[in-house]
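Running log. JK asked me to keep both predictions on one page so they can be read side by side. First protein, sequence followed by its tokens:
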Amino acid sequence: MLSARAVKNIQQLGLPFRFTPTPSYDPETNPQGLISFGMAENVTFTLDSVSYRSSAAINARLPSIAAAHLERVLRTHSPIDPDHVFIADSPTSLGNMLGFNLAERGEGILVSRPVYGRFELDYGVEAGVEIVYADTATDEAFTPNSVEKYEEALAAAEERGVKIRADFASGGLHLGFLITANQQLRQACKMVLRLHGPSQAAITIGAAILEDQEFVKEFMAKSQASLARGYRLATSTLDREGINYMKGG
């Protein structure tokens, strides 16, 4: 017999935007099947890159590399302290760790809309934390107008007995970076990192990519252009067919 929480989790398998279909393409038996695009990089590996250890030199370098990269991309108002960079194997794992360390089971985290739908899984499957939505419009999620929507969502959650613990305004090779000056939170995450630590290969590849600024600049330019083309194609099709959609989303 499964535990009650396992049964509850299984019920989410049928919900949309929670789990993607399994790749099914085969050139002969299923040429119309789903293809999964992976990621490949040409990176020089050292013994540390594939070793089973957490004290490799590259591990100490990556926080500084990530901090410098984020400062350039985000144009931060103040420098990011590399000591404030906590690295896990993916943003999904960080969501799970934050839910576990910031809230108790059954409590909630307040977020605005539109937002990544799988936060419900990241924070909920293991930590049992509920994502509580503030019904903000697309153009007001980061404006003072959102305050009223947050207050309404907070009041509604408290009315049904859900305590709101923290606010999160968020909308292959995996790395996740948590940037926080909260030393206690970093220590708490470190205690469960054993279950979510990135591989040495991922750290080596990630560091090599972020250190190559010419590549990063070119990649981001191509990525933005590709996203723009895809957006124009999708929205022009929706406009032609008379289908409503979230403008600018």
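And the second, directly underneath as requested:
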Amino acid sequence: MIVTSSSIKTPPPPHPPNPWAASQNPNNSFLPINRRSLLSALTISTTTTPFANSFLNPMSAQEVAFARGLFQMPPVRLTNRYFLVRAGESEYESIGVINTNPVAKTSVDNGLSEKGKKQAVRSAFDLKEMGACDKNCWIWPSITQRAYQAAEIIASVNGVSRSYIVPEYSFLDARGLGAYEGKNLEAVSEVYASDTLSPTIKPPPIDDGTPNESVSDVLVRVIQLMSILETQYSEDTVIIVSPDSDNLTILQAGIIGLDLRRHRELSFAPGEVRFVDTNSVPTYKQPASAVYKCLKPPNCN
């Protein structure tokens, strides 16, 4: 006898209707979600989602170390390359007169002198030789006339579009010297003598609107500038063009951790260019007492 079997399987009987569900929702209308069901659903989703741990667990120590926060001096790291440039000599400087009142910063007299134009051209070629703009760059000059003129020369020599010149309206103003406004440039030595005693000493005030800024005041401004640059750009090249030396020396002193009372040691000549290389600058070591003692001010050597 030949026995044959059929490959067709009998489908399972359908589940009997749930009379409780039908009675609870006879018209298949929307039922409100109760609190217990919602909490249960959330618990299941967070335990089964593959990314749940990354949201629920705190950041690791390494992640915290590399997270961006408020810019501080000295910085933990710099995300951009920086070149510091002092603008060339101004018309006021050519006649030996101190002019730091921001009201006059865009005047023609605050522009580059003939000597200053040559210094600006030299700084532009120095930047080109250093390869500052080989992969494009941003130029951040003070809106002070001589600094912006220097930025235009730098852009022209290095083939940078004018759209990459970003004028800075306040954080890069020349340091306000108060009552020294209008005096001979040689009088600045008195300000620097005070700087060696304390970074909080201000020049004497004046009532013509010229600010009298201490080293600490300038430090606040350059920190604000660096906070913007480090937030706005990443792995870019930024050329900072300042109308005076103090902005740059205080900025560099803060970056390398040098005592701010010694910022004058980093003085910039008109038209000088300097690359900010934190790895090549030796770390400044404070005295063991952590107190700078000066027995015969202003001669503190």
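Observation for JK regarding the second prediction: The first helix runs from residue 19 to 24.
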